[in-house]
Design goal:
Blueprint: E1 2-4, E2 10-11, E3 29-30, E4 51-52, E5 59-60, H1 88-97, E6 103-109, H2 111-117, E7 130-133, E8 138-142, E9 154-155, E10 165-171, E11 176-180, E12 188-191, E13 207-208, E14 213-217, E15 221-227, H3 230-235
Length: 236
């Protein structure tokens, strides 16, 4: 028995599409094993709206859980892990078409931010930052959760004050924006020359970052977004 999802994919499952994850109407189930026997799905309404993938700009149907082109996960805001992603070849072809990265994020342990948070957790030893390349225009900031299949592009590690899905970084190639994803403790923006911020940015609103802005998260995490050096571009 085969099924046809609203996007036109043949599926062996009769509840959710094997290809895009959309729910399948029971009326679309067709007896027989051949895809040729499946009825042509009705065209979507002219006024229907889809969702554009922030990773590859492909327009998907509104109910899609994953981007049909690159596999971007609309639920977690991240790319599927390579070892479990069956569409990895498609994702690789999209990445190869993207311009070479020219930005990095510095992940700092900030004693001043830690002191202001009054966290019960012990502060790790501060040192030089981790430098993380930013190869895409949309990246998830948070902490890894294998049980929930959340693999952020910028993993804040042992800082338990950072939510699993803390914030989303997006770029138009020249500017960077940060958006809080309903995190538990908020996302804060402050200038390098001013006092530490006291009020978090609004949830769900993209905030443009100035050149000297710092992003403060959790109990001790500070992020700095900057252009990569020539050595960093060659290294990564």
């Amino acid at each position: 028995m085969t099924s046809v999802c609203p996007a036109g994919h043949d599926s062996t499952a009769d509840d959710y599409c094997d290809v895009c994850g959309m729910p399948i109407d029971a009326t679309s189930v067709t007896p027989g094993a051949g895809a040729a026997s499946a009825p042509v799905p009705p065209a979507p309404p002219a006024d229907s709206t889809g969702q554009v993938c922030p990773n590859c700009d492909t327009e998907n149907v509104a109910e899609a859980l994953f981007c049909e082109s690159c596999g971007y996960d609309f639920t977690t805001g991240s790319m599927p892990r390579p070892e479990t992603d069956p569409d990895q070849p498609a994702a690789t072809s999209v990445a190869s078409a993207s311009p070479a990265f020219s930005w990095v994020a510095e992940l700092w342990i900030d004693p001043a931010w830690y002191e202001a948070q009054d966290s019960p957790d012990e502060l790790p030893s501060p040192g030089l930052p981790d430098v993380i390349p930013l190869p895409r225009t949309s990246l998830l900031v948070g902490r890894t959760s294998r049980s929930r299949n959340i693999t952020p592009d910028i993993d804040c590690g042992s800082d338990s004050g950072v939510s699993r899905r803390q914030a989303q970084l997006t770029s138009d190639g020249r500017r960077w924006f940060v958006e809080d994803l309903e995190s538990a403790n908020g996302t804060f923006i402050g200038s390098a020359t001013n006092a530490l911020p006291e009020e978090p940015i609004p949830v769900g609103v993209k905030r443009e970052l100035d050149a000297d802005d710092r992003i403060y998260l959790g109990a001790w995490t500070r992020l700095v977004i900057r252009e990569a050096t020539e050595d960093e571009v060659a290294e990564f």
